User: What shape does this take?
Amino acid sequence: MDAAGELFERHRAPLSAAAYRMLGNRADADDVLQEAWLRWSRVDHRSVNDPGAYLFRLVTRQAIDELRRIRARREVQADQDRPDEPPAGPSTGQRPGDEVAAGLLVVMETLAPTERAVFLLHDVFGFSHAEIAVIVGRTERAVQQMAYRARRHVRARRPRFRPTPGDHRATTERFLAAAALGGDLAGYGRACASA
Assistant: This one.
């Protein structure tokens, strides 16, 4: 196995877990990992400073694309199931972005803004603690501690804050925009930290 393959294999378990958390389906998560591997195999690896962060961003973006494809398939299937009925407007089923919104609501209810930025940038987008320290204006050690505490708060799921529906919607939209290919993840982290 070459160096690129070894790097991917070293990160496979957390990448798979991240894809599964976003998609909620093992088969879809495996598809995302396969596509991420194909894209990773075509990258000039010498130009990648932090392979772990790169791979997490790649898998996150692939998972969001997969959520969009799933939604499109559901809409097509719903249209095929009722060919004689006029379109009834937006689908009443759960949209793929709803899973992201639900996860972000837990994060917003349990974490303060800077904790939220640290948690999302590190655990979701794969930024290093040093990169996050620059973004949020804290020391690397402080960011490590904040990430540790943030994970504990999210796992406990004890609400400490009450975000308004407007704040939740805006945060979800910023998250999805930042996670899209070419999104400004660092800008998203700064926006979270200052919210």
Observations:
- The CA atoms of residues 101 and 169 lie 8 Å apart.
- DSSP finds nine helices and no strands in the chain.
